[in-house]
Amino acid sequence: MKASSFLTKEQQEQLRASIREAEKKTSGEIRIHIETKLAGDVLDRAAWIFKRIGMDKTADHNGVLFYVALGPRKFAIIGDKGINARAPEGFWNNISDVIRKNFLEGRFTEGLSEGILMAGTHLSEHFPYRKDDINELPDDISFGDPDKPGTV
Predict the structure, then answer these.
(1) Could you tell me the CATH number of the domain that includes residue 136?
(2) What is the Cα–Cα distance from 115 to 98, expressed in whole angstroms?
(3) Distance of alpha carbon 42 from its chain centroid, rounded?
(4) pLDDT for 126 beyond 90
(5) Host domain of residue 124
(6) Cβ burial 9-28 (10 Å sphere, 16+ → b, else e)
(7) Concatenated DSSP letters for 46-69?
(8) Residue 152 lies in a domain
(9) What is the pLDDT of residue 14?
C-alpha cells in the first residue's frame, strides 16, 4: 500500500484536528510524515525528513515530527534542538509506548492521534502557548520522499 492512500480523508482530518488541538496548548509545531518504504535507519531518515520539510526553521526550535515508514512498520518521533535542550531524558518514551501499543492493535490513526495530543501536553510544560503564537508550519500530513515527486 502506498503511503498516500493509507489514510482515508476522514482519518487525515482526524489527525489534523489532533495537531490543531495539541498546538492550542503549546507554541511547538507538530507534523506527520508517512512513507511507504525505508532504506536505512528510521531515526536517520526521520531526522533527514525533519530538515527537508523545514521543521528546523521554527523560531524557538520546537518542532516535532511523527515519522512513519509503512513497509517495515517503523516509526520515530523527532524533536528539534530547542526541545532536546529543555526536555528531560526519556521525554518521548511514554508517547512512543502509547503509539506502539496502538499500532500493534491495528489502531494506526488512534495511536498517532493520542501520541500527538500527549506531545502537546508535554510540550506545554516547556513551550506554553502564547497569545502572539503563529502557526509556523502547515498541519497537513506529508507523504513520500520530498525529493522524488511521485513517491507518495
Answers:
(1) 3.10.310.50
(2) 7
(3) 13
(4) no
(5) 3-143
(6) eebbeebbebbeebbebbbb
(7) HHHHHHHTTGGGSTTS-EEEEEEE
(8) no
(9) 97
